[in-house]
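Section 5.1 Outputs to date
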Amino acid sequence: MALLEIDQLSVRFATSVGDVLAVDRVSLRLERGELLGLAGESGCGKTTTALALPRLLPPTARVDATRMALDGRDLLALTEVEMEDVRWREIAVVFQGAMNALNPVMSISDQVLEPIQVHEPATSGREARARVDHLLEQVGIPARRGREYPHEFSGGMRQRAMIAMALACRPKLLIADEPVTALDVMVQAQILGLLRGLRDELGLGMILISHDLSVIAQACDRTTIMYAGRIAETGGVEAVFEAPAHPYTRALIEAFPDITGDRVFVDGIPGVPPDLRTPIVGCGFAERCPIRVDRCRTEEPLLRPVGGDHLAACHLAEVSR
């Protein structure tokens, strides 16, 4: 049994101009000890998909799915009280922007301690404090520095503190939302190495959300590329990056400079993503796609195999590879 199974997940937000379909029939599967990367432009549905799992979306969101199960447990069937027991104990989140996610008037140790006190009230104070010290050391923060406050930490150290907090109750699934955004490349490498090491040591399943394809390529086992709330392409990292089958994936890869090639100007992807307040007809990427054909504007492409477990939602996937 897979750790996480999501079938046909859709998320709609109620707005003053009607419902907005932010996630459209997304299906994902995550094995134990696997690191899955979600990538795509801003607004493509990555974070909304991930936050639907612990049900941390605002009240205006409506979540529908054929199946959404963690370790065989149906998350959609749980009451809010039951979900409170799932959050942090089974599903933990490293939120984007550590400085904003941390409480500025609480010490780092107290913030890592808090989820243990809330979710494991039977744990003694001495045992909980010892666990906090161990967690800080585990993520590369000297335990003595736990007495300090967020403003006394660098960006990388704050991110490590967020990871320690997420691991406080020994979850099965860790969701990391842009964990290395705004960090310099050396610190990025350290944080990604830390996540991979924790995955190997603790057997965690992880979902890593990032705009940066180099982060996905470096850290993840598999990747899912999202566009306009739908899955454009999914598969093993090597398969997707070495032989991208969807024009959107290729455009994302080509938007990154090749440090081993000639020094040339890198173009972005022309156009903008579609307005999700209007239902998408056909392929959502059609208006920006350089190889579109007439059917792309009228017929929705479904995910289909292009080699092994490598899938792409493109009418021309086989032709364009």
